[in-house]
Amino acid sequence: MAFDEILHHVGDSGRFQILMIVLSNILFLLSSCHDFMENFTAAIPDHHCRVNLLDNPITEINITMNLTTEAMMKVSIPMGPNQKLEQCRRFRHTQWQFLNPNISTSNITELETEPCLDGWTYDHSVFTSTIVTEWDLVCDFQSFKYYAQATSLAGHVLSSPLSGIVSDRFGRKPLLVYSCLAYGILGTYCAFVPNFSLYCVLRFLLSASMSTIMNNSLTLVLEEMSVKWCTIAVILSGLFMSIGQAGLGGLAYMLSDWHRLQLAFALPYFIFSLLFCLGPESARWLMTTGKIDRALKELQKIASINGKKDIAQNLTTEALRSKFKEDVNSTRKPAKIKNIIINPIMRKTMLCYSSAIFAEIFSSFGILLDIRILGKNIFLTQFLLGAVEIPSRLLTYFALRHVRRRPLTACLLLSVGSCITITMFLPEEMHVLRLILFLLAKGSYAASICVFMVYNQELTPTALRSTLSGIYSMVVRLAGMLSALVLVTRKYFVHLPMILYGILPIVAIINIYFLPETFNLPFIDDIKDMEKRNGLINKSISKKEEQDFLETTEC
Question: 46 or 56: whose pLDDT is higher?
Fold first, then answer.
């Protein structure tokens, strides 16, 4: 549209765009770990009831002084069906007869047991501290871990639409600055939080800040470059997110204390807050909302950084107004969310796109939020889940350049659903094959996220881009939150989560048919542009159908 010509004039692929991409990619590197950090900060180590034989009579103290730890466990805690110590029960009375090697513990039944009244003893060989060990979130309280994850994701649900509306009203830059600062402050406090309830509240607020950061940073970067560089920027951001997720496993291995891991991800956001404060506002947004004078200053900065100082000096407000013509007057008033609801094209696009991305995220997050089901070594599993995304996203770059959006999205949804569905029919003993299928599903998920990000930018007009991105982000986070809550149902019906994760993406393919094709089409600035584009698409489809009909009748 008109702004693309102006941006090309001042430079749409120069040093300025490179600096913005580098800054945003470093931000994505860290931000990608926020939702999956609790795989490690909330890891559940091996545990059993605390054994306190010192509470016994004096005669028994003399016996225990010569006992090994293994022997004390044997007489105090029953063995489970997997021949490991029970994690949530202990003998009501010490079973000294088990010290006799001629007596088999498996042949003795109906011994009285009780819950872990004195607390638990944890294995600290892997994690020195997690929120589970700090607040005893095991046994009857194990579901609290999933509630904490759901509460954290609920912060995204609330923040995403609000941040999008505020961003379209007041700009991308202010929200980025304040959100980065808020994340740094809240994240630092979260590392030293005294109780579980306050921890959940802080994680909720941290997620709210993170949604604002992710949505606005990507929007700001993409609005400062032409359409032809959009795909490259999205793929690069996706690659850095994958590297961040793969690196999370290594960092969590080195920082085995959850306090230090939380602090390591919070402190860099103070620096990001300062950098975005010194950075520019979106010139495209300024132009679209009629703020021509501010847009002129930003465009002059872009031209200067790109080495086009002569253009920066010659650029004037009158030139911008004449270039933008009627678009300036028609888009002076900020677009409102009611425009999405009233306009049938916008409404249909939003609903179909939302349902498709909901299914994709719902299915994938269920696996990513509980990676214990993929293998015992969660550090290696986290690394593999991140590393598999790198080739997947690289292949997506070529797919986005040569394949239409609708069939590509449908194929990726089918791939995710099929891989998850097949694993339901595989026994847990085939853990290698199960892991391979999950990695294929994760690779398809990573590719689909890149496609959805590009598709979103192409579908939505600039005047409503942040608002719609906020709504879509809310849908994404709602899917993640429900996915975490579905994991709780595993104790009632073990296969229910996997059934839902597998079926939903396959069913959602139907909605892709109702979305418009945007392959090789430019960005649109307002709803009128969207209506014109859809009219041209429908007209070309009608001509093609008419031509096919004539060819059929001639035959």
Answer: 46
